[in-house]
From TrEMBL, chain A:
Name of this protein: Sugar ABC transporter permease
Alphabetized PANTHER family for the sequence: ABC TRANSPORTER PERMEASE PROTEIN
Keywords: Cell membrane, Membrane, Transmembrane, Transmembrane helix, Transport
Family, similarity comment: Belongs to the binding-protein-dependent transport system permease family.
Length: 300, 319
């Protein structure tokens, strides 16, 4: 592609000038906001900025205080629980739905429309609907009780031990449709002959899925995993809408911690340190993936 | 779709209206007739499972609609799944025109119009920038262009919380903090990675000869963009419009950080109405407000159908 420009180079800077001018917004965004903003935040996380950012370095003090704060520990635990379960369930449910959808069924479009519509809704709407359904006074709990099972208890949003599962239910409702779509695209990309061969060899269907199809879909799984994982670290709106972090701090998540410290507690240094930890979490997910994906491609 | 195989008249065991057998992909293999009973039991499992899943996905929508049409006395008595005995549209009117957030009591309509004023320019600006960027990256690469693009794509994975405060400072310096312009700028910035990727991939997939022919005829950067690329890329414009419209409409974090209470977008206002602590909770009004906020992306989704699926697939699976 680079061959559009002539090999003789009169002046490096003015070659392809229009393209460079047109790319200025992209360059600014990439360098100033994404790169510059990230570096700025990381640098200021080593200062003791309170109401306003100040460059007075205190080393790792903010991080020490961060990991001494119970609220941060709770939010990290919530994120870990929510993240693991969300990954497992959305991959499993998404794949199962996709496998069912791939049985040459009728009404495929109808089913797809139904499974995917929550994805078009915002997390705020999702959170508020599920807050209402899980409301112990009127929702599922009271309905089951009115059917005769009077000791039935299901109030995840008011019980700090299980509140994160209440959020998980809502998140799965919102997000599994997307996973299903990605998986279905992956299943459709698999050669029909594979199925024929497995059929001829008399391999049962579930074995074909488990030992042939799923290993073949590795790239789809990896991409889906990265998408889900980077969404998990960001989770914020859903918690705000569904529980506002409550009861107490029981359903707090890192993104909410960051926001509260930056804009309410007037403790910028803590906010920066916490957001740097979020960045680190994402890096742990992204770097190996990028290395496998792009490092491998260049060599191969 | 390649749904070419349908069974002849279905037996008495299989359910009416369903004639395509579940395992019909296997029917293409070399084999004899299958006993019909096995097929229909598989049918029952497949459709049963899909049906149950569909119910789970539909229940919240159903509950929202039903609750929003009931009066408060009925909500206190009945269960949330029962259909309304007396349909009333009062909650909808109240949610739209009277619901209170703080001192304002003019309902969600304020948030709705704020969201419109945010979404429309943001979509236009971000798509304009991203399409030109994608075009430059696909057809006019220059030294370093791929580096910027890589930073952009990696940047898409950075949590927003990391970059929010520097942006607050930049916008404050520019005098745009708290204004709609500032928020539009923010949406354009954060929409850029995925949109640029979308357009770049689309332009790369167009035949290169077109571009070369235009170059030989003496067309320049902008001429080729406006005369050749733009008219050819209507589908991708529609896809990216769908993505951006739903994405920006559904945003909460940027709305709450970069605007003031009187310019809050709909999602923020909705959250404030429903989760406000003072006053009696009016669940029917809350659900009507929730449905109103969800209506715009839902309409976009139902109208666009397949294009929406294509958009998220293109946005999600790179390459």
């Amino acid at each position: 592609m680079a061959a559009h420009t002539q090999p003789g180079r009169p002046n490096q800077l003015f070659r392809n000038l229009n393209s460079k001018i047109a790319s200025i917004p992209m360059m600014l965004t990439a360098v100033v906001i994404f790169l510059g903003g990230t570096i700025w935040t990381v640098v200021y996380s080593f200062t003791n900025s309170k109401l306003l950012p100040r460059l007075s370095f205190v080393g790792l003090e903010q991080y020490e205080r961060l990991w001494d704060t119970p609220r941060w520990i709770v939010s990290i635990q919530n994120l870990a629980t929510y993240g693991c379960l969300s990954l497992i369930f959305s991959l499993t449910i998404g794949f199962l739905l996709a496998a069912l959808m791939d049985q040459k069924i009728r009404f495929e479009n109808t089913f797809r429309t139904i499974f995917l519509y929550p994805f078009a809704l915002s997390f705020i709407v999702t959170g508020l609907v599920w807050q209402w359904i899980l409301n112990p006074e009127f929702g599922v709990q009271s309905v089951v009780r009115s059917l005769g099972w009077t000791s039935f208890t299901f109030d995840p949003l008011y019980n700090s031990d299980i509140v994160i599962y209440g959020i998980l239910i809502a998140a799965l409702w919102q997000g599994t449709g997307l996973v299903m779509c990605l998986m279905l695209a992956g299943l459709r990309g698999i050669d029909e002959d594979i199925w024929k061969a497995a059929r001829v060899d008399g391999i049962p269907m579930w074995k074909t899925y488990l030992f042939i199809i799923i290993p073949m879909m590795r790239p789809v799984f990896v991409t889906t995993l990265v998408i889900i994982a980077s969404g998990i670290v960001r989770i914020y709106d859903l918690v705000v809408a569904q529980t506002s972090g409550g009861p107490g701090i029981a359903s707090d998540v890192p993104a909410k911690y960051v926001y509260d410290y930056m804009f309410f507690a007037q403790n910028l240094g803590q906010g920066f340190a916490a957001s740097t930890m979020m960045l680190l979490a994402v890096a742990i997910i992204i770097v190996p993936w990028a290395y496998l994906e792009f490092g491998g491609r260049k060599r191969g | 779709m390649d749904k070419s195989l349908t069974m002849p008249a279905s037996g008495p065991v299989s359910r009416p209206g369903i004639s395509a057998p579940a395992g019909s992909r296997l029917e293409t293999g070399p084999q004899g007739k299958r006993p019909r009973k096995v097929l229909s039991s598989r049918n029952i499992i497949v459709y049963g499972a899909l049906g149950l899943a569909a119910i789970y996905y539909l229940i919240p929508l159903y509950v929202m609609v039903v609750t929003s049409l009931k009066g408060m006395p009925e909500i206190r008595l009945g269960n949330i799944f029962s259909p309304p005995m007396e349909i009333t549209f009062e909650p909808w009117v109240k949610a739209w025109a009277q619901a209170c957030t703080g001192l304002n009591c003019d309902g969600l309509s304020r948030g709705f119009w704020n969201s419109v004023r945010i979404t429309v320019p943001s979509v236009i600006v971000s798509i304009a920038i991203a399409s030109v960027n994608g075009y430059a990256l696909a057809n006019w690469r220059f030294k370093g262009s791929e580096i910027f693009f890589t930073i952009l794509i990696v940047g898409a994975f950075i949590p927003y919380q990391v970059m929010i405060y520097p942006i607050v400072i930049i916008l404050r310096e520019m005098g745009l903090y708290g204004t709609l312009y500032g928020l539009i700028l923010v949406h354009s910035i954060f929409g850029m990675p995925i949109q640029t990727l979308l357009f770049r991939n689309y332009f790369v997939s167009l035949p290169e000869e077109l571009f070369k022919a235009a170059r030989i005829d003496g067309a320049g950067f902008w001429q080729i963009y406006f005369r050749i690329m733009l008219p050819m890329s209507l589908p991708i414009f529609v896809v990216s419009m769908i993505l951006q419209t739903t994405g920006i409409w559904n945003d909460f974090l940027f709305g709450v950080v970069f605007t003031r209470p009187d310019t809050y977008p709909m999602t923020v206002q909705l959250n404030n109405i429903v989760n406000s602590v003072q006053g009696v909770k009016e669940y029917n009004v809350n659900m009507a407000a929730t449905l109103l906020t969800g209506a715009v992306p839902l309409i976009v989704y139902f109208v666009s159908g397949r294009l929406f699926v294509r958009g998220i697939a293109a946005g999600a699976v790179k390459g």
